[in-house]
Amino acid sequence: MRAKRMIIMLVASGVVFGGVFGFVSFRNTMIKQFFATMPKPVITVTAAKAGQGEWRSVVPAVGTLQAVNGVDISGSMAGLVKDIAFQSGQEVKRGQVLLRLDTDVEQSDLRSAQAEQELARTSFDRSAALLRSNTVSVSALEKAEAELKVKQAKVAGLHAQIAKKSILAPFDGALGVRKVDLGQYLQPGQTIVNLQDLSLMLCDFTVSQKDLAVVTVGEVVRMTTDAWPGQMFEGSIAAIEPLVEAKTGMVGVQARFPNTQRNLRPGMFAKIEVARPGADLVVTVPNSAVAYNLHGDAVFLVREETGADGKTVRKAERAVVELGERRDGMVVIKKGVAPGDLVVTSGQVKLENGSLIQLAAEDPLKVSALR
Length: 371
Fold this sequence. Notes:
By secondary structure, the chain is of the alpha+beta class. Helix content is 26%, strand content 40%. The protein contains 4 helices and 21 strands. The protein has helices at 2-37, 104-132, 138-163, 367-370, and strands spanning 42-49, 51-55, 58-74, 79-84, 91-92, 97-101, 166-168, 173-175, 185-186, 191-208, 220-225, 233-244, 250-258, 269-275, 280-286, 298-306, 312-320, 322-327, 330-335, 342-346, 356-359. The protein is elongated and about 165 Å long. The protein starts with a helix and ends with a helix.
């Protein structure tokens, strides 16, 4: 009896498990069939034509801007600040008074020295008159003359000391933020305000010694800054260091850039390009078209094929490329793309080789416009 029950249970279990396994196998088969027969999605992308034109290679560099004249204004004399004759950020002219220190003590000493000078001059004039009548000796006249010169030098020294307590602008320019206050005791060399001449900017950068044949005085250079993206500044090379740095093989170069709009400021970092002579015929595409990868940079090309229903479909074809220089949002393609090829510029993250694609309706670079 027990054996019969065991057989029935085994048969029932086999039927149940067989049904479960059969259902799972059938479900998996149907899922695979569904995905195999499911139509591929059409991915919307934008595209642009690969252009061909002359490309002039450049010597790239990174530099730092400085004003043609720039200095921290300070005094050479100590004293109390009596008058501040400027405002922070003000434009000033050469020779304009910026600050005056207290000169009461020096003015008093000057009046005393001027009185002594007048007395010495009177004594000298008297000795000169008496010499003509042989009343005094020549040595007495020379002594009076020497005394007069000493007093004159003392007066001139006090005038110079008083003048140094008036701080003047050494050149035309724009002032920074004031760093002193009225009544403050100013020490010699203490900064009063920064002054920068922004009419002309200098940019110091370095190039390799192998590029010395390209970098010559007077050569036109182009510059871009992070502060003004998309704006190109043009200048010229003003000076080249005669010494090549032995450890690095680099040469110091200085370029001048007009700054009539006052857009450039000292201390800015700048990207410099010095054009090489001659130009090459190259293929270029937008930077956004390149998919950068450790296994190789690539672009997706738009290819047209005729489907089974006779309609034209567009597919993405992945092409590995060799890149060249980048400039103004474009990159040189040395290998992998031909002039006139239509390359995907956005949406390539969703693509793989053979993906169906269509061009975005709002994209101005439609296929009809690119043919």
